[in-house]
């Protein structure tokens, strides 16, 4: 790699970070830092955390998959609107759009719901990706995204019908008996890659069973106040109108741990500090995590994270 190419990569990243900081400074959102090495980590069955040991400490520590838990503790303590740009880590994630270590931009806005936060995400992405966007942003419900791209209703279709789509379109032969796992496969392999052609496409109101840390909305079918954004078929962010009910969050964490146990996955301890912060009172807010490496990849017209990282995990 030539010195000129190396320099171009570094300058492009520096300018992207500068524009992000300017964006939030204009809106009065405070930049914060929280620990990336913590005593607890996520329970989500779809995320694998890296753990390590510290001298003299009996329990493992974890490299965070997101700064979410610590940032919510700050919100409950009265921080106001906050954002953070940091390195995060996810094991078993490598590929054209994945690197085990990556840069995340996460922020929280008091008094916002997930639709208002989509407005702000759109404003930021239009700033960062202006040269790549040639059509107005669009918003689709999770159901409408499946109906448009696969002609199937994700809420009413049988498991067999969903499996048949995977078989025909992906050549897959073995399927999970869990509905959400099969829906995740179809979203990740077929629906998502078809979204955001020269535009920002938001998918919102995910099934309540995929709420994660989002609050659920009244109505039928039960849906979560959650959204993702896609550009050029690449998923860029995941956002929530944040759940503030400590008892419900504990129930979800315990359900995650039960699912992990059934799959033979590690069982990290619950983050009792986060649950205590929620019990004290999390202000009404919405939050989102945005993958900056993917944004930079799109902004520079690259088709792989390899082209925008100083060093990949294999080069580090």
Layout: helices, strands, pairs:
Elements: H1 3-26, E1 30-31, E2 37-38, E3 50-52, E4 61-63, H2 68-76, E5 82-89, E6 101-110, H3 114-128, E7 138-141, H4 142-150, H5 159-170, H6 179-191, E8 200-207, E9 216-217, E10 223-231, E11 234-241, H7 246-263, H8 272-281, E12 285-291, H9 292-299
Parallel strand pairs: 1-5, 7-8
Antiparallel strand pairs: 2-4, 3-4, 5-6, 6-12, 8-10, 9-10, 10-11, 11-12
Helix pairs in contact: 2-8, 5-6, 7-8
If you had to describe this structure to a student in words, what would you say it looks like?
Helix 2 packs parallel to helix 8, helix 5 runs parallel beside helix 6 and helix 7 runs antiparallel to helix 8. Strands 1, 5, 6, 7, 8, 9, 10, 11 and 12 form a 9-stranded mixed sheet that branches. Strands 2-4-3 form a 3-stranded antiparallel sheet, with no helix packed on it. It has a domain of 200 residues: 2-Layer Sandwich (BirA Bifunctional Protein, domain 2). 37% of the residues lie in helices and 21% in strands. The model has no long low-confidence stretch (mean pLDDT 95). By secondary structure, the protein is of the alpha+beta class.
